[in-house]
Design goal:
heterodimer; A: mainly beta; six-stranded mixed beta sheet; five-stranded antiparallel beta sheet; 11 strands; globular; B: mainly beta; seven-stranded mixed beta sheet; four-stranded antiparallel beta sheet
Chain lengths: 108, 113
């Protein structure tokens, strides 16, 4: 069983479009982290959300933690080719449990 | 100010050989986590160690796999008698405390031929 399900699994869009990636679970997490991973590299931490309902912004990226701390979303505004990569959410249960991942490709 | 260091970056082993993967955590970090990633998939938790102790090994296969984090030196993930199915990227992460942010190394890509 997968604790954290991400959707969509794959996303191909044109530069300038907006997109939202979802991370859903039936379990409550004390915190949730979002990572981006590029081919051949390790995941790089983007943000940690801790409080239910919390919204954090990182330039064109907006992260939201659900009120019940079971789900999260990542919204990217005006996507750029440099945003291409594998986006992973991870919930904290004494160790990080990773989601299934969303592979984003942004075409120029 | 080095991050998490893993070596080797690439490792090729023949079936039946042993693979040793090393992870040096960030300075000041005493918690280490190992994950495995198959192509086109997310990261699967393997084991969580704190200096000299295994805290959680619920993701480790019961046979052939072992991990240690000695008082001195890097954490080691050891795979004995490797099989083709062990081919994957193995990532190590470290944190300063439980439930704090974890930072990942660049991974070791193991290929079993």
């Amino acid at each position: 069983t997968q604790l954290l399900e991400q959707s969509p699994q794959f996303l191909s869009i044109q530069e300038g479009e907006n997109l939202t990636v979802y991370c859903n679970s039936s379990s409550v997490f004390s915190s949730l982290q979002w990572y981006r991973q590029e081919p051949g590299e390790g995941p790089v931490l983007l943000v940690t959300v801790v409080t239910g309902g919390e919204v954090k912004k990182l330039k064109r990226l907006t992260f939201q933690f659900g009120d019940a701390r079971k789900d999260s979303s990542l919204h990217i505004t005006a996507a750029q080719p440099g945003d291409t990569g594998l986006y992973l959410c991870a919930g904290d249960r004494d160790k990080l449990i990773f989601g299934t991942g969303t592979r984003l490709q942004v075409f120029p | 100010n080095a991050g998490v260091m893993q070596n080797p970056r690439h490792l090729v082993r023949r079936r039946g050989q042993e693979a040793r993967l090393r992870c040096s955590p960030m300075k000041g970090h005493s918690h280490v986590y190992w994950y495995r990633q198959l192509p086109e998939e997310g990261l699967k938790f393997m084991v969580y160690l704190q200096k000299e102790n295994i805290i959680d090994e619920s993701g480790m296969p019961k046979e052939r796999f072992s991990a240690e984090f000695p008082k001195e030196g890097p954490s080691i993930l050891r795979i004995q008698q490797v099989v083709r199915g062990d081919s994957a990227a193995y990532f190590c992460a470290s944190s300063s405390d439980r439930n704090t942010e974890a930072f990942f190394g660049q991974g070791t890509r193991l290929t079993v031929v």
